[in-house]
Write a structure and sequence with these properties.
globular; four-stranded antiparallel beta sheet
Amino acid sequence: MEYKDKELFTKYAFLLWEHRERILSDSRMALCTLCVGNNLAYVNVKGIASATLGGYLLWWQEFERSRRTDKHNRRSLIYFIGGSPLSGRNHCGEVYESGKTKTITVAPFKDYWGSFVEAQGKLSATENNVQAYALAEVVAILQKEDSETIIDISKDELRRRHSEYNKLYFDNKLSMPTFYLLNKKRPFGQYRYCGEIWMSKRTKWTEPFLKEVLLHEMIHQYIYEVLHGMGFTLLMQHGLRFHYMRRRLKRKFGLIIT
């Protein structure tokens, strides 16, 4: 695999993980080859050097230690396996939601490479008539589907997403607001300091747009509840604290919030 393809894998690892059910249901996606340089010293084990996207997703899904969370609540996925089965010395790689990578050492190494090979073996390319997609094609298809799929929002769905995003991006520091649905297109969303979030029910919500708008309103909530700012005025609602939180989410998680 060329280096630019390896970069593509790490850049979109969490997009691929979030769409694991979609990918595993389509053999053209699941059998996409990912040669990211995995290696075991002194031995040639099938499934290490030439892995599949579906094999990775099964491994991340079934081997819990392949999914990590650090003390700052940043999630990462192990995307690279390298080392010696004999000595156990290894140099693996993890990728964060932001796309940043880090070299790590895992132990016991056998558990990692053994489970990885096992997961790869569960996905067999015996269907000779299947023409697997390249990784760039898989990413393009998923992004296109996300941008075209319209989500019918409800208060229950908004509460579910708020709970998920609160845990992932705000250290679980936010209270659960009361959600209301606006019967007009604008504003798309609005946080009110009495503990309410209003979302337009007449907007054609796609996955990326809904996530961005809800996170935007949750930033306002975080500033009010945690940073104790803007409690008495709306004049500076997109001031320094807001831009600080935008940069923080981009730096830590690769999120782009307008």
